Amino acid sequence: MPRHPDRLIERLAQPAAARMIAASGTAVVFAGSVEQHGGHLPLGTDAFAAQSIAERAAARLDTVAASLGPVGVAHYHLAWPGTLSLSPGTLIAVFTDVCGGLAAAGARRILSVNWHEGNSATLRLAADEAQGRHGVRVVMAETHVISHTLFPGEMEFTHAGSMETAAVLAFDPSLVHLEDATPATDRAAGEAAHALFRRPDVYPVMRDFHDVAVTGWYGRPELATPERAEEIAEAVADHAVREAREIWAALGPAGEGR
Amino acid sequence: MPRHPDRLIERLAQPAAARMIAASGTAVVFAGSVEQHGGHLPLGTDAFAAQSIAERAAARLDTVAASLGPVGVAHYHLAWPGTLSLSPGTLIAVFTDVCGGLAAAGARRILSVNWHEGNSATLRLAADEAQGRHGVRVVMAETHVISHTLFPGEMEFTHAGSMETAAVLAFDPSLVHLEDATPATDRAAGEAAHALFRRPDVYPVMRDFHDVAVTGWYGRPELATPERAEEIAEAVADHAVREAREIWAALGPAGEGR
Amino acid sequence: MPRHPDRLIERLAQPAAARMIAASGTAVVFAGSVEQHGGHLPLGTDAFAAQSIAERAAARLDTVAASLGPVGVAHYHLAWPGTLSLSPGTLIAVFTDVCGGLAAAGARRILSVNWHEGNSATLRLAADEAQGRHGVRVVMAETHVISHTLFPGEMEFTHAGSMETAAVLAFDPSLVHLEDATPATDRAAGEAAHALFRRPDVYPVMRDFHDVAVTGWYGRPELATPERAEEIAEAVADHAVREAREIWAALGPAGEGR
Amino acid sequence: MPRHPDRLIERLAQPAAARMIAASGTAVVFAGSVEQHGGHLPLGTDAFAAQSIAERAAARLDTVAASLGPVGVAHYHLAWPGTLSLSPGTLIAVFTDVCGGLAAAGARRILSVNWHEGNSATLRLAADEAQGRHGVRVVMAETHVISHTLFPGEMEFTHAGSMETAAVLAFDPSLVHLEDATPATDRAAGEAAHALFRRPDVYPVMRDFHDVAVTGWYGRPELATPERAEEIAEAVADHAVREAREIWAALGPAGEGR
Amino acid sequence: MPRHPDRLIERLAQPAAARMIAASGTAVVFAGSVEQHGGHLPLGTDAFAAQSIAERAAARLDTVAASLGPVGVAHYHLAWPGTLSLSPGTLIAVFTDVCGGLAAAGARRILSVNWHEGNSATLRLAADEAQGRHGVRVVMAETHVISHTLFPGEMEFTHAGSMETAAVLAFDPSLVHLEDATPATDRAAGEAAHALFRRPDVYPVMRDFHDVAVTGWYGRPELATPERAEEIAEAVADHAVREAREIWAALGPAGEGR
Amino acid sequence: MPRHPDRLIERLAQPAAARMIAASGTAVVFAGSVEQHGGHLPLGTDAFAAQSIAERAAARLDTVAASLGPVGVAHYHLAWPGTLSLSPGTLIAVFTDVCGGLAAAGARRILSVNWHEGNSATLRLAADEAQGRHGVRVVMAETHVISHTLFPGEMEFTHAGSMETAAVLAFDPSLVHLEDATPATDRAAGEAAHALFRRPDVYPVMRDFHDVAVTGWYGRPELATPERAEEIAEAVADHAVREAREIWAALGPAGEGR
């Protein structure tokens, strides 16, 4: 069960999309990011990573996947030209508007698929807003967390390292160019700095990714292979859908909007 | 010179994208729409049509093309479930944020590529805002108007007819399914009703596309062929780029933002 | 049937205004602009031009005309001190608030009368918002386009030339002072530059009117006369009302707000 | 020194307006309201009252007067159809935008002329915003308060009574139609109820003017005469300008915007 | 009947708070300010003054008092570091959100207690918004005005003088440190300058409190004593509650929200 | 080193507050929440818990602590009357405005102290905004997480259980009334349901706390004692400050605002 571009709502004709949403009462949305990932991975790494899982999740849920656009909240990468960023308010508005359309078509359950850490707080507020306005029940799937949790040794939690390389390989291997890699930042230094921002109890808020890695990335992209990447993507999608179903079952159907 | 997905900023690595934008001082952005187009064309018809021309224009300008996301302003199609719509304010915010990133990378000239009539007024205000905030000079390319103007008899100005079918064929022929077509509205009736909304002097503002076509579409999709579609897309891209260059040459470089 | 200041809602007492709106189910709104028009025409040229037609249209529709205020969206004239400008968001808010009051009084049909090109995209979004919020059906009358279309040779599409002079003459001849004219920009040069911005397919968005005319205006104000101006204003009002009625008849009454 | 429509910025040509603002460093703005005033006074009573004083003040200050549009904040009169109202945020935006243009033309001192009690808090916040953004020094003239204070017995502080009738007479006597008066509310009852809302220490905020006068108005319009009205308007303008000059002298010139 | 911290909603458990609000149909809210008051009074002088009266009023009304936070609109004191300020829009949002919760618990009548002149216009607009959105009837109590009006000679209307010192003494005498007083501005000069801003008819809007007092304060704090302060606070609370009850009785219960 | 109300900025006079902020280059802000916590804990439990740690942290950092107001984002508790909630946008605005004042007084480092889970995503976006606008470096201290992490067995991660009871005891023991406890929800059921919302990888967004505990709370408040509560509060403050200092040292001083 590999990629499923046929689940992208924009590639479906209206009758088919309407049928899937109404029958399943469910839809998938996914966020992106266009931000530097060194020379070996594309700017849209996080967008492709999320889309890859979103398509697979939509197939498992027998419904559509709707993109929130390739760009996310990534202002702390803007020092590297080519990075794009939405303000949090903009992404919240896109999320809410898109969920409005999906809810109007009958979706009471939304699975929000994300890969980019910088989007997480914004998407949570967006889900809160969409729940209040459109009466949906949103489940958030943080697919980078799932990947790292399911495959902790192999899928390293770096920037542009093995985990992100695998995510792009599972989407489109032609987008990975290890031969173009710019110099990596020392991995131990990157991990130590990055860990500061990921502490659960006391943590700073990212202003400039130079605080983590002066060359923009660190990690071991060379550890990822297309075959393994595909297996991992499938496992991540399986996990996300299984958990989402469990949550919806536990919480019951969403009520009406406020 | 067919499609150029390699010009999509999210598919490029940061060094390459930065180089192209800086060297050309130019970038392309494109808007979309996810709205019903009967049973034979995908919901994202307008998004694909714009992307197809945006990629080609970016290749001609030797720069990147950045998507504003698949969804546009299409609330008057919401009566057909599966349609999605941004509020105008949301699309303006996305446009402005994206242009901010492109301007930071050195783009002083932005070509905005659009296919969807319902986006036009919003994109104009967005360009106005981006010009004021980021010091760019934006040129708008309304590619549906170009298509119809260059090939007036052949490219009919209907909804989901020959012109839009050709636009999708030039992007990805596998997305067209004439065999799934839902019933068309009478073409003469559709044209007469649609013409009301397109008068340049006195005109209503669309609330519900049922006012144009009760079945959601009208026109002759069967007139389009992949070969001809490709020729037309190339001609449209040629035209857009030639005119944009002429305008930038006439008006000179943009100054600094307000 | 000359000017009709008695149709201005602020000049009517409440019982009379309420009666007209309720009986006709219709109201007229009009936008303005306060922007330089050389030395011979007043800053409020576009405001007076719109008001002149709005009053006449209101008389024909047997209802009231409500001003959105003299100021419009004209930032690209701000290099000439004395120009005033609203941001597009401000004008949209005024339009929506005013239509809310008219709708509450029973207006289901709104005729929006405008003369100023720089307002058009903003007013279209405003009408869209008002339709969604207040359940009205808005018809836009672009009276400068009507004038030029009905009298193409005579009413030149310049800035502060014969067409705009005629429009002011039809409102109040004492406001025209040809003897105070500042130097005109070469007419051919002005027309060529202005035409760039008016192309329907590929066009720039105005940042500074110096790009059209370095002295701020061009055209032949001396061609306009008060008598002819009055005839033209009447013809424009006739046309706007006839077309609006045709549109409302074709589309039927507005439904309830969203 | 009667009315001075020649001071309205929209009636002036750009060179003259620019000259006046630059030479005086001062400009006048005025707010309005379109709200029911029984059958004998026009909906725009407050707008005309403010304009009448604003024109006179502008003449005294040798500068321009700029309208903020006829409509103000008057939602508590909406139960009477024909009333229009801006939300406070809309009026603040109009005020700020207009002051931005005046400041760009050289106005460091703004005199804000208002007649409508319902606008006062909104205008104060608007002035605060304009001061912060545009570096101007705004003085507020509450002309209904001035009128009542200067002529306490004669100019009664009612709604649509002698003071408001005089204000309209001083603007345009043809707008007053005592013969069309709808029934007045008992004056003592109206005064007592209105006084509740005008207490300086503990007071309610108006929701519906029925709480003051069930027929919409009370007072003695018959006490006003055109001759006396003109004298009063002149005295009010004298007072406003004298006080404003005293304030500007005491506080010194405005600094630059924040 | 001294202070009543047990009336602060945050100090109550949910069942008790819910019971009080439902039984009384009433709630008290109070605004603050954190702004310099020389060396002898705390930054939160206005916040404590309002809280002191709000608690007492809540006890009299047998309901809860809810803080809008210690910070108010005080940007014109920012030249003295340590001052904090909300923008008016922020305070309006807080007020409206808090009233929403109180209304949901059954409060149809809100008493808004304020001490800080700089909050008044903002709170009035906030009350207007809350009335429109939540169907409550808001009465404003300007407790500094009440204090000065009830005790005109004794409670001087200065900044950081006897009236404000008394207000803090009635809240917590340990917060007053006359021994730390920074130099006062000449009292007559301060009063004269302050009076300009308090004229009811023509007045400037405060930009910087240096325009009133170059050292930040003036007045006679030494005139206040704890015993008298307590008597005054009780009288002010009595007055506010008596007037509010009279107003609610006169105007009847609030209707439903818009 | 127990509570330190003398560190609350509103209780300090301006000279002292200014001195502390300037000398330390640091300030503490803290958020609250007013939401039901059964019958035994006050509505402001989370506000008091945060304040208790914020005061202690401010003492350790030798600077001031500034409240963002008692109310936070807690709409999912609104089904229990007495709960109050700000919209996320409102809390972001308060945070940003308050940090603006602190930054103007010389704070380049802000420690944001929070106890309420429902505020976390909002505060993160607020910190991001404040960093961009005011050039500060914000460190977030999630004190409920610290408490639970430092004392995992003892400080249970429930709602209104031992950890929250201890937090209130460390602030003011008189606010705890175990004798008034309403019935608890089964602890195992509450923990299982709550855990769904706290998963790091796939999780729902809270709509109504009934999904966690139908009676509104669960846990063992009886396990907490005042003595132990005080020890824990000190340990939490120690930890927060130590980690914050480490982060500021690692990342260096903040630059200037965007």
Summarize the structure.
The structure is a homohexamer of 258-residue chains. Chain A is α/β, with parallel strands linked by helices and 258 residues long.
Q: Could you describe the 3D structure shown?
A:
- Six copies of one chain form a homohexamer.
- The first copy, chain A, is built from eight helices and five strands.
- The mean pLDDT of chain A is 96.
- Chain A has a four-stranded parallel β-sheet with strand order 2-1-3-4, with helices on both faces.
- The first copy, chain A, has helices at 14-24, 45-61, 88-104, 120-134, 143-150, 162-169, 187-198, 226-251; strands spanning 26-30, 65-67, 109-114, 137-142, 202-204.
- The radius of gyration of chain A is 18 Å and the shape is globular.
- In chain A, helix 3 (88-104) runs parallel beside helix 4 (120-134) and helix 5 packs across helix 8.
- The first copy, chain A, has 258 residues and is α/β, with parallel strands linked by helices.
- In chain A, strand 1 (26-30), helix 2 (45-61) and strand 2 form a beta-alpha-beta unit.
- Chains A and B meet through helix 1 and helix 3 of A and helix 1 and helix 3 of B.
Strand order of the largest sheet of chain A: 2-1-3-4
Number of helices of chain A: 8
Average pLDDT taken over every residue of chain A: 96
Largest protein interface, residues of each chain? A-B, 58 and 58 residues
State the end-to-end distance of chain A: 38 Å
The low-confidence runs of chain A, each spanning 5 or more residues with pLDDT under 50, are: none
What is the helix content of chain A? 40-55%
Given helix and strand content, the structural type of chain A is: alpha/beta
Overall body shape of chain A: globular
Largest sheet of chain A: 4 strands, parallel
What order do the SSEs of chain A take from the amino end to the carboxyl end, as H and E? HEHEHEHEHHHEH
| Total number of strands of chain A | 5
Using only C-alpha atoms, the radius of gyration of chain A works out to: 18 Å
Query: How is the quaternary structure best described?
Result: homohexamer
**Share of residues in strands of chain A:** 5-15%
